[in-house]
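User: My collaborator sent over this chain with a note saying "see what the structure looks like." That's all I know about it. Can you take a look?
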Amino acid sequence: MSWASRFRLLQYTKASLWIVPLLGLVLGALLAEWAVSVDTTRFPAGWRYSASTASGVLTAIVGAMIALLGFVVTIGVLVVQQATGTLSPRYMRLWYRDRLQKAVLATFTGTFSFSFALLRTIESDSVPDLGVTLAGAAVSVSLLLLLVYLNRFTHNLRPVAIADLVGRMGTRVLVRGEATILGASTRAGDPALPTDGGPVVHVRSERGGVIQAFHPERLTALAARHDCVLVVTRLVGDYVAPGAVVVEVHGGASTPDPRQVTGLIAFGSERTIEQDPAFAVRVLVDIAVRALSPAVNDPTTAVQVLNHIEAFLHAVGNAGLHDRYVLGDRHGTPRLVVQGRDWEDYLQLAVTEIREYGTSSVQICRRLNALLEGLLTAVPAASRPAVDTELALLQEAVDRAYTDPTRRTLARTPDPQGIGARRRPS
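Assistant: Without extra context I'll predict from the sequence alone. Here is the result:
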């Protein structure tokens, strides 16, 4: 199995809502067999059960677990409806991975199979006292997890909570990816192609799809073995049609097997956040744009999302990103060229659509002004021209939208809260 296939399998496992509950189902049955095998008659009288009592208790537990499973599934359906309708369909890929939700489902299925397996061992003169007691304890744990689950999703399904979660995930991926790429770069950002002008072989995608991730270390090692340079022509997150060029092989004593190359690049049906911090910004912008739609008309939510977008942009602005990275082998010889997103790419992604859809809101104009002016003082000098360009575009949009001088001045005033905290002279 290639690395790309393993990556896709891992992604499927992370997003699956049935694998962990299935493990809980099997584990519950195995624990029931263990409880019966170690059961003794040395329990205190208060912890012993008659056959009818044990049967009734276990039967009630089996029915309750099935009902609770249906309740959690109903909540999941409601979450899907809310997320796709008022937040962003892209967020669902992150929600499917929630570990607490899988733990709740696994506990319910495990308690169900544990209790059901114990039922067949009950006889008039033989009752698994230990198993019945453990089944009661499992019900208590299940109820506690259910309350935690309800509390979490009651609070964490608010747009601002989701924006905070997605923003932090994007920042972690950015920092981790920056350390990986820059740590192996020989000449980060060097626009010159490190090749001797030899033959160029094109490696084409077989299945096509969105590039979800690639393995830079193994691609570098593969290029070193064949003494060539591999140039990845697409960004992580790009859609590649079947048969399109995805890697160029420059020079080298031999040409690597195309299947080895594509086996180190994972394709899928949609973007993931593993190596794509821009996907987090995409989700944040989607939430803000939905809030600005005429059907919702909630600019305050968009302002709250902009708070987290600003925090992410501060991290990007100081990361020293480039649009190309040259990675070398252990001897420092350039072996792999990968495309990257630079500061301007992230900035445009973060503010363009919100500016276009939110210009009619004074609150959004003021918040964007404060965001961009704050970036001017926070990012290095080389990154400021892109911020100046976005500020100019924002002023032009305000001038077009507000013909009245008083309202135009109001919309141009930077305000970190949108409305209510304009800056005053010190």
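A starting point for your reply to your collaborator: The chain has a mean pLDDT of 87.
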